[in-house]
Amino acid sequence: TLEERVTDLYPHFNPNEVRRFVKALSDQGDATEAMERLARENAEMYDIINAWKYDHLVTWGTHSADFLTTGGQYLAEQLLECFDRRSYVFGKHPFLPQAGFALDLSIDVPFYDLERWWATFPGREKFVKKINVLNVDNAHLNSESSRLLDDFHHVRQLSARNCGLTRLPEAIGKMHGIDYLRLDDNKIVLM
């Protein structure tokens, strides 16, 4: 059944979330076809992320340690969580298909260089358009240009609290569809 396929793809969904997900798919048209597409896309994303991780982890030594300790591994884990629909951003769990995906890249580790690792992630062009909610709280972002934010011009909600920003990055100005923006605890000076 469609419910079983949803449960197989998103085993962490509770029964109510499964029912609501199936109903939302059905309301959008051919639910079976949509579910097949989601399963294909999810498998493709897993393949891309795992190949990227393998490329960095298979070489033991400095290269591997760098990926593990400066944010590459963390980015890979958060991307998997995003496309598994396990992320909670803004206190919400966007599990319905029309909600898109939420990517939580908020960090507590000051030396993670998410901008650097994001630039090397090979699947970003294909999958970034599916992400509607982005949280980069505590990630150090460059006020002049942010490779990370540049790719997310279509997000609806962005939280970039405590990111060391001194002015509003141009990338945020290009987010024309943004409904909700959180920039607390930065040192932004408006001119």
Write the layout of secondary structure elements.
Blueprint: H1 2-9, H2 15-27, H3 31-57, H4 62-69, H5 72-83, E1 101-104, H6 114-120, H7 124-127, E2 131-135, H8 147-150, E3 157-159, H9 170-173, E4 180-182
Parallel strand pairs: 1-2, 2-3, 3-4
Summarize it.
With 191 residues, the chain is of the alpha/beta class. It has helices at 2-9, 15-27, 31-57, 62-69, 72-83, 114-120, 124-127, 147-150, 170-173; strands at residues 101-104, 131-135, 157-159, 180-182.
The average pLDDT score comes to 87
Q: Approximately what portion of the residues adopt beta-strand conformation?
A: 5-15%
> Percent helix among the residues?
40-55%
Largest sheet: 4 strands, parallel
Based on helices, strands and strand pairing, what is the structural class?
alpha/beta
Strand order of the largest sheet: 1-2-3-4
Order of helices and strands: HHHHHEHHEHEHE
Number of H- or I-type helical stretches: 9
Record field, number of beta strands: 4
Shape: globular
Which stretches of 5+ consecutive residues score pLDDT under 50? none
